[in-house]
Amino acid sequence: MELISWNVNGIRAVEKKGFLHWLARQMPDILCLQETKAWPGQVSPGLRSPKEYHSFWSEPSKRGYSGVATFTKTKPMSVSLTMDDEKFDSEGRMLRTEFEDFILFNVYFPNGKASPERLAYKLAFYERFLEIIEGARKEKPIIFCGDVNTAHKPIDLTHPRANETTSGFLPIEREWIDRVLDMGYIDTFRHFDKSSEKYTWWDYKTGARARNVGWRLDYFFVSEELVPRLKGASILADVLGSDHCPVGIQIE
């Protein structure tokens, strides 16, 4: 079973760059998209509900902003879009799908660079999300994926020293990922690959992708009880169309 997560930085923009052709070739069992920047009624029918997939979309209150979507070949047992907090729900950042043997969270975590207020919002979102997955874990094993908007270790970005005071690599943000690991969740990519220069985001404006000057911001985490079923994890750095690339896992 293959699961893929991708921050597309605008689903309508990436459609023009061949997204549906890529999806027809790749055909993951589940695809989680972040930063869709569109409601389902704003996209083409083929994109709104791709062939062979059940599709679920969030609708942020602000058009052209944020948003997540999940495409799955298997119909979920249940679907939820709420974090039970309006300040988070209004931005459409989380989509929960329940399957027979796990619960999947597709999440577009906030970016804290814009202002101290947005950093505070990001940290509050982090805390609320942990409460949600710990509650869900009492029911079934957990998978969560998406753009976490934080690089965990110095190995996860090209210029760690230069970014020590930048949101996305602040100690308080990185400590949150430490807590996630301490709680028994596994960073699936690092479970298999400890090597450097493996990134998932590159700045458009500076042409950073051509030089591989990047950050690893996109993750799949699984609760430790799923590790025996975890068969692989990957960064699909050759897939273009966004300033992020897809990441994936294979589960037995």
The outline comes out as: globular
The count of domains is 1
CATH architectural group: 4-Layer Sandwich
How many β strands by DSSP? Answer: 14
Major β-sheet strand ordering: 3-4-2-1-14-13
At CATH level 3, the topology is Deoxyribonuclease I, Chain A
For the sheet with most strands, the description reads: 6 strands, mixed
Alpha carbon gap, first and last residue: 6 Å
Q: For the CA atoms, what is the radius of gyration? A: 17 Å
Average pLDDT: 97
Strand and helix order: EHHEHEEEHEEHEHEHEHEEEE
Low-confidence stretches: none
Strand content: 25-35%
**What is the helical fraction, as a range of percent?**
25-40%
Give me the secondary-structure category. alpha+beta
Give the full name of the CATH homologous superfamily: Endonuclease/exonuclease/phosphatase
| CATH class type | Alpha Beta
In DSSP terms, counting alpha (H) and pi (I) runs of 4 or more, how many helices?
8
Brief account:
The protein has helices spanning 11-16, 19-26, 45-48, 86-89, 116-137, 171-182, 188-192, 208-211, and strands at residues 2-7, 30-34, 54-57, 68-72, 78-80, 94-98, 103-108, 142-147, 185-187, 201-202, 214-215, 218-223, 230-235, 247-251. It is an alpha+beta fold. The protein has a single domain, classed as Deoxyribonuclease I, Chain A, CATH 3.60.10.
